[in-house]
Design brief:
Domain Protein kinase: 28-272
GO molecular function: ATP binding; protein tyrosine kinase activity
CATH architecture of the largest domain: Orthogonal Bundle
Strand content: 15-25%
Protein name: Protein kinase domain-containing protein
Shape: globular
Strand order of the largest sheet: 1-2-3-4-6-5
Bound molecules: adenosine-5'-triphosphate
Distance between the termini: 63 Å
Binding site for ATP: 57
Number of domains: 2
Keywords: ATP-binding, Nucleotide-binding
Structural class: alpha+beta
Length: 272
């Protein structure tokens, strides 16, 4: 309890965001705070050398003192380097360290996250639209997996739509499928499903992502809470695919097997 209080106080004192208009590294002028995550503070800044707006991510000072904090930042940088020039991932533009700590500079994907679209804009998605988006995401994630990368944080705030094209951000928890040290078998089973160093974690997360989309058009008929399978009016074949993605039934072992299941579902739907 005292430790929590002390950590909270430390964050308040040391993790205050940098002020707007401050020039960092001789070229990045802070414009506004985009978000304050568990490890970093993210800003929109203006690169006066290139004349372009960029995203600047600063490792929280309290996290810069911890191995896990530094590792998360290094991991994000490393993954962005491996995925350099990927059309669905922001480009890493710079990395540096100064009196304010560790920074990475990346392309600003100026679009809307699915969290914005569902909760702020109240956008709704049908089953057909959900499947279409899911398939596009599966193609992107399949490419990460081919490079040996597991994202481990494919949530609605980390998927951005810009000019009709999907982008995936936040590689702070990503790791290589061979990185056994990231596997904490003592984690709670629920956390393990999302964070295990396995392609199944990304499929689990995408299953959840699909549920968010499907729930956007759900209107409760009664106050009684039921399971998603009872509440959502979706086809039995999509239900069965989601059950496998969510590891409620024998899980899919690869993106390709999910894609095959979805494609055969379309074929079935087309038959009279
Ligand atoms: N390259 C980017 N382009 C556009 N927006 C971005 C980019 N990177 C991050 N953001 C946005 O900045 C905000 C902060 O993101 P960030 O990933 O740093 O932390 P978080 O998601 O708030 O927290 P956590 O790291 O704990 O998940 C989010 O709203 C995210 O959508």
């Amino acid at each position: 309890m005292i430790t929590e209080w002390w950590n909270g106080l430390q964050r308040l004192v040391y993790d205050r965001p940098l002020k707007a208009e401050l020039l960092i590294h001789g070229r990045y002028k802070i414009k506004e705070v985009l978000g304050m995550g568990s490890y970093g503070i993210t800003y929109i800044a203006f690169d006066i050398k290139k004349g372009d707006s960029i995203v600047l991510k600063q490792l929280r000072k309290t996290k810069a003192k911890t191995d896990s904090g530094i590792r998360s930042f290094q991991r994000e940088t490393q993954m962005l380097k491996v995925l350099e020039q990927h059309e669905h991932v922001p480009n890493l533009l710079d990395e540096f360290q100064n009196e304010h700590g560790f920074f990475i500079v990346m392309e600003w994907v100026k679009g809307d996250t699915f969290e914005d679209m569902i909760f702020r804009d109240q956008k709704t998605y049908s089953e057909k639209e959900t499947i279409h988006i899911l398939l596009e995401l599966l193609n992107i994630v399949e490419n990460f997996h081919q490079k040996g990368i597991i994202h481990r944080d494919l949530r609605i705030p980390n998927i951005i739509l810009r000019d009709g094209k999907l982008h995936i951000i936040d590689f702070g928890l990503a790791c290589f499928v061979t990185d056994e040290e990231f596997q904490d078998l003592n984690d709670h089973p629920e956390k393990l499903r999302m964070r295990a160093v396995s392609v199944k974690s990304d499929l689990f997360a995408l299953g959840h992502f699909a549920l968010f989309l499907l729930y956007s058009s759900y209107e409760p008929q009664s106050k009684k809470e039921r399971s998603w399978e009872e509440e959502l009016e979706i086809s039995p074949s999509l239900k069965s695919i989601l059950r496998k993605m969510l590891q409620l039934d024998e899980p899919f072992q690869s993106v390709i097997s999910v894609k095959t299941a979805i494609t055969s579902m379309h074929v079935k739907a087309k038959r009279p």
